[in-house]
Amino acid sequence: MKYVWAWSFLSILLLASSASAQAWTRDQGSGYVNLNYRLIAADEIYDPDGNERSIPDYKQHAIGIYGEVGVIDRYLTLTFDGELYRRNVLEDMGATQGLGDLRVGAWTGVLTAPFRLALGVQLGLPTGDDSPSVDDPAANLIAASLPTGDGEYDVTFRSAIGHSFTAGSLFGFYVQGNLGYALRTKGFTDQIVYGAEFGTRITKPVIDRFLLILRLVGTESLDTGAAISGFAGLGDGVSFTSYGVELAARVWSTFHLSAGVESAFRGANVPSAPAYKFAASYEF
Amino acid sequence: MRQTLPFILFAFTAVTVGCDADFVDLRPENVRAGGSTNSPMVDDSGVPMETTDDDSGSSVPDPTTQTGSRTLSPGTVVSSGQVVGVGSYTASGTASLVRTEGGTLELQFDDAFMSSNVPGPVAALSTRDVLEDGITPGEGDVLAGIFETPIRGPVAYVVGDEAEGAGFAWVYCNPFQVEVARAELTPAASAAGNGP
């Protein structure tokens, strides 16, 4: 029993600043909110076959949110995530801005030992604008190429597995993986989504405020080439695999600040550039 | 449950206020005035491309608004070639420059034509074999019109007589300046059978 409490405490410490601790479902009334800013500045895109092609300077600013709250101990955690604001800027062409797409989800804990296993379902909502428009036909061509959403509802079924452990008395670790299948509508091709995350903390006073996270995230479109390929990372036919690193610091109580960078090393119909991310999170 | 309620209300509110995006035009003033689709579409002196008249006196539609005709007018094939994808993009069909019986010059894509779909697709003509820095009239490039998606034929665009010597027809993502598909146009005398 002592070990169970110790491991639970370690898990909370480790995961408090992780953006989406899906394998660890929450107890009733507890929650987590993460507000983040992401910047992508690209002068190349991945074309449908993954070759890099030059484009005019393109910047994507996004203010995102991720939240989760426990409704029923272990068995029901609700999640909410998406882009509250997205701005696409294509140099000397135009810029679009507005609400991005949002997503709500529900997770249930299947196993708590010897590892965590949770199953979830997420509903993607087309709250963004998939085809911004203006009256000027010439400008409209630019506006329509800078969407803030994908314009379709989708349902993603996910499984997440996680485990936290220590190495001696100095290091605490967690590992987490997830795999899912996204059913898309509006004629879009389905996607396989996956991710893996490794976090570590040195369990010594002061320095235990910091958590280092390594991350691998990917999306694989089952597109056969018929997709209307965009370059903003939205829409049909989007695939990528990215790796990332994030450093989070506990500032006060359960309030954290973090900074990180992710970069796709392969992709299709997405910008080819690092994504810089800054976040503030709070757990209650 | 009290702590869950704000979360649910916020989610509901956000979902119900899903809204259109705002657009800010960042094209240089002189380009906006001319109605061109991007900044490189000006001549060497910076003058925006404008609607022109051909020799027959008929007006050429504004290429920045022309979405093309789904009917291919009969006429004499000036030049034509097979449309092929650039890089990993795919395309098929034939593009032809046709002098119609009415005297206008048209860029025609036949009914077998189709191309990978991209945002902001346009049809263009050029004398050079690359468009990587945009459609530039000063380089001999001619914007023919806008493709509707999905990109497929038949579709025809009226172009000015200055396009008659073009060596290449293009499917081009204009905002992001990405070459999608290209046809190398061969004069009709050596391209028998390729016309629509």
List the SSEs and their pairings.
The complex is a heterodimer of chains A (284) and B (196).
Chain A: H1 2-15, E1 31-46, E2 52-72, E3 76-90, E4 94-98, E5 102-111, E6 116-125, H2 137-144, E7 154-167, E8 171-184, E9 191-202, E10 210-221, E11 239-252, E12 255-268, E13 270-271, E14 275-283
Antiparallel strand pairs in A: 1-2, 1-13, 1-14, 2-3, 3-4, 3-5, 5-6, 6-7, 7-8, 8-9, 9-10, 10-11, 11-12, 12-14
Chain B: H1 4-16, E1 22-25, H2 29-34, E2 75-85, E3 91-92, E4 94-100, E5 105-109, E6 114-115, E7 121-126, E8 142-146, E9 155-159, E10 168-173, E11 178-184, E12 186-187
Antiparallel strand pairs in B: 2-4, 2-11, 2-12, 3-6, 4-5, 5-9, 7-8, 7-10, 10-11
Account of the protein in words:
The complex is a heterodimer of chains A (284) and B (196). Chain A is mostly beta strands and 284 residues long. Chain A has two helices and 14 strands. Chain A has one domain (2-273): Lipocalin. Chain A has helices at residues 2-15, 137-144; strands spanning 31-46, 52-72, 76-90, 94-98, 102-111, 116-125, 154-167, 171-184, 191-202, 210-221, 239-252, 255-268, 270-271, 275-283. Chain A has a twelve-stranded antiparallel barrel with strand order 1-2-3-5-6-7-8-9-10-11-12-14. Chain A is globular and about 65 Å long. In chain B, strand 10 (168-173) and strand 11 form a beta hairpin. In chain B, the strands form two sheets. In chain B, strands 2, 4, 5, 7, 8, 9, 10, 11 and 12 form a nine-stranded antiparallel sheet that branches. Chain B has one domain. Chain B is mainly beta and 196 residues long. The interface between A and B is large, with 62 and 49 residues.
